[in-house]
Amino acid sequence: MVLDSTNTFTNCLMMSLMDVSKIFSLLQPKEEDEEDNEHGQALNQAVSSDDVAMLTELLSQDSYQRCINNRSGWGIPVTPLRTAAAHGHLRCLELLLKHGAEVDSLDVKAQTPLFTAVSGKHLDCVVALLKAGADPNGSPHNNCSPVLTAAREGDVEVLRELLQFGAEVDVWPKVPEWASNATACRGPLYISAVYGHLDCFKLLLLHGANSNYNCKSDKMLARIKQPKTVLEMCLRYGCGVEYIQLLIDFGANVYLPTLIIDKTTKQNEAVVLLLKERGEIHFVRHFLINFVGRKITGWRPIR
């Protein structure tokens, strides 16, 4: 038995190391001569300064054109396209794309230019990258995604663009199986609720987000001990009654959450709404009499 557990852990660890090795192999810089390094730095400098005229002049020369996807810069080397996305320099970004810059090139964190633009809330750059064919889900080698980032930041306009270009609404952090010990899938619906971004929450539901677990993968759910529904997490984190109502309207199973009600329970209106949807009238009365002791807006005592 011990041997089986040891083998399982070793296999998972090996798989994790293989994933890490694959990421770093993708990011290994190509052998470049000194001139190519200088050309790459010149391109990045022009982009950083948002000097479109200079960038146009450089890219008109073959020696610079072939360095368009080279990584350079102090600290973490990045491509010119990544620099443009980070700074929100749209004209430079569009010029680089026009000259064949790799739209989904990765940095050392396995982040794409789109991910960087989303993080910086540069809507115009996000749209330009998506129209150029950027993967709206970002890199599979990154633990986060553009949608999760937009949902966390409450950037509903960026989120809308990502979803219109086919981004997955039920994504979750891509942790290895042996490291998964979460109680919820922590997809974008969950994240937007916890951070209090109601507009993002509603938009995700409108685009088909799973209203129970924000996850459609049975395999993923099986990895989690006693998974918590979005409803349950909304109650736990004190989300308003409007979140509960939206989940109910979009078909959430009101019988899945486990309700533990005592004198410390908050979100009285949300709890009453959920109990009413369950048809548990006797629990509603008990809750109102013993734990609330005050009038709840929009609620009339049951006779």
From TrEMBL:
Pathway: Protein modification; protein ubiquitination. SMART domains: ANK (SM00248). ANK repeats lie at residues 79-108, 109-141, 142-174. Pfam families: Ank, Ank_2. It comes from the Eukaryota. Probable substrate-recognition component of a SCF-like ECS (Elongin-Cullin-SOCS-box protein) E3 ubiquitin-protein ligase complex which mediates the ubiquitination and subsequent proteasomal degradation of target proteins. This is Ankyrin repeat and SOCS box protein 12. The lineage of its organism: Eukaryota, Metazoa, Chordata, Craniata, Vertebrata.
